[in-house]
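Human: I'm a chemist; would you kindly supply sequence and structure tokens for a protein?

Assistant:
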Amino acid sequence: MSAKIDIKFWVGVVISVFFMALLFRKIDFYLLSKTLCNADYRYIALAVAFTFASYAMRAVRWRYLLISEKIIPFSSLYPATVIGYMANNLLPARLGEFVRAYILANREKLHVPQVFASLVIDRLFDGFTVMFILVATLMTVEFPSNMTDSGAVLRTGGIVTFIIYCVVVVFLMLLKWQTIRTLVWTKRLLQPFPASFSEKLIPLLGSFIAGIKLSSKGGHIAAILISSLIIWLFCIIPVDMILQGFAVNLPWNASMFILVLLVFAVMVPASPGYIGTYHYACYKGLATFGIEESLAISIALVLHGTSFFPVIIAGFYHLWKEKLSFSSVKQSVGNRP
């Protein structure tokens, strides 16, 4: 297991070094330092505040995702969320999700697999919201004249991706609330494929959905949907705040476009903290709107810093309050089944 993680880690390091090298070729360090010194850091502070507000809303949504298991207080959900995001910045392969599940399960006497299953749904709602933002952005943003064809391709791709994601969400909803009927229809749809494929997939789907206990109450579903929108609103605002901190006045959908690029960037294998891929995606997003190179790189560095360092400090603070060490949590997650 450890060898496998090491391979992913070093591949990520190579990818991060590659993208950082691409950026360093474009950096004028004098202009970079001047731009950083001239920034209005009051906006940066607001960006950090909204970032933590998004973590708080994630804790609220998590409460409703687990409400069928147990009513869990915010005082348990929020520290686990922050510690999990800290771990995502420091550990490879998004192991922070396992850390987050472990911390909450340990504190609330729950089974780790049950808590982790709620995070699968957590990510599903994140993906749905991001796809919605993607379509809304691509339908409203005005691309430069030299990107007209690329913009059309992006719009078509975004709409197709959103439709596919909606189909997956509807399928999972049917699988949860009409399990037997949905599995029967799935088996029929799989008839053109080898029987061995269907015999393996159907039991897997059944066991997966049985482990997910999502409340069917309308109020709870509404709370999950509304909190998902607020979470991502609080992710868009820091981008806009940092742009304003550098006296860059772009339309609101530009911040949405940059955020979507960043979401896709952190999916690319990279070193812990998404170094390189995050910065390059932000730089390219800003370049789309004609932002000068040194300014774009400055914004990318600060935007990454506001999402990286504060949550690490807060995460270690909450670990200290929980009387836990990072090494012990890392070891426990490494020993997961």
